[in-house]
């Protein structure tokens, strides 16, 4: 009974994965325990996944930061293993009560042997081939003991059978009582073990072949990587050499250009200094003469004093007759200086230094003048322009008009769902859905009419929720793609939402002079007021915010990049001259390929950011 208990305890101390005594046991959420190393190996098989699936019950456990060491340790089991290892194992072959300490364990006999029994055992010719393990290796966990399993219900019986249906070993008595019903498949345990080992060998052979196949693939990748690295090194060396040779030439050229710019601008500065000096002399003359005259406390009575006083008064009168300063001359001189610009020399045989220039835009006239109402990037990376006089015109990134759809539909807004269906806001503020083949779907939305809500605008977020903003009603309605009533209303307290754009979990709204970032309950998170300009916002491909500010009166646009907190990052386009349209209505978007699209009611401007 004691041996059976020891065997049962020993079995419970074995990891179900490696079948060795537990080392650093860790508990999963399902309460099953495994070696830390085994769990590391299992987690590695899942790649970057932080979920670990229990090999026994298949329940999932989340591993924080893929670090198995952060899982709770099985302290009770760890303590039990240490206690068992600290106990001596006595010889089970000696029959005396005062049994000596065992020094080896015979795997084939299933017996612990002392020094005397081990010597005798090693001399018997039938036992010479047996596998004998030293106790010090067993206690350190370097080797695993193969024990003969006894039936838990019948401790004196060996588990000689295996039920392939129940997936368990059983003794002959258990087979008769529990595994003789139809559907059970009972075979000898030795046969199962033989088949199992053969299956393992087959799997190992297949694994070796597959591993060899993938290793060849990895070696091939390494070869390609080495070739690329060689190219990188060669190119780097060539670039460094070209750089070093060019630096001297560039330095000399830089000094010449700086000297030329300095000469031209210094001349202008001298002209301005001359004008400044003349004006300051006149100021000094006025102050001096005026002080002499006006600070006198006595009236001049004698002839000399009276003559001097008259002369000073005449001088002051003459000085006062001089015309007010003419700003035209300094402005003309300044313009001469400001006209000095640096343009990069892009000739093939010249050293290029670079230039600061305003981006050049493609200028595309829309087919229908004064008709643009909306613009949005298409799922395939093009740009769709909705027209009030009917139709959605689709342009490529190079400005080519590729197709026109919905020619007879008055467009107030355009959007796309994740399955590429069109969302069209019609002139009456009604929303219509269309399939990719432009067939209209029978889906109705209860939007506000034009009389109730006024002019409307539309955007679609990443969750396929449709947002319609109303200028007159000063609110935004959110709709599910299935149609029906609005699922939510967002109040726009104190401002008129003229355009709205989806941005992560927020909306970007444009009013007369202000861009606001609001959450989907209407709370303003950040705002940016652009006094005297007409701002229009879009989301960049880098998930930043682009804002175009339009000076409608002079016909120019500037485009800047901002963070998600509406903090300025950089200027992209500065005061680019555009053809002034009749209607103050503009749209800003970015192509997937990086080009920035700015649309007026008449024209589409495409700024190349490559």
TrEMBL record:
Gene3D superfamilies found in the cross-reference section: Classic Zinc Finger, TolB, C-terminal domain, Zinc/RING finger domain, C3HC4 (zinc finger)
UniProt keyword list: Metal-binding, Phosphoprotein, Zinc, Zinc-finger
RING-type domain mapped to chain residues: 15-58
Keyword Lipoprotein appears in the UniProt entry: no
Record PANTHER family: BONUS, ISOFORM C-RELATED, MEIOTIC P26, ISOFORM F
Protein name per its UniProtKB record: Uncharacterized protein
Cited InterPro entries: 6-blade_b-propeller_TolB-like, TRIM45/56/19-like, Znf-RING_euk, Znf_B-box, Znf_RING, Znf_RING/FYVE/PHD, Znf_RING_CS
Record-annotated B box-type domain positions: 86-135, 146-189
One of the record's GO cellular component terms: nucleoplasm
GO molecular-function terms, A-Z: ubiquitin protein ligase activity; zinc ion binding
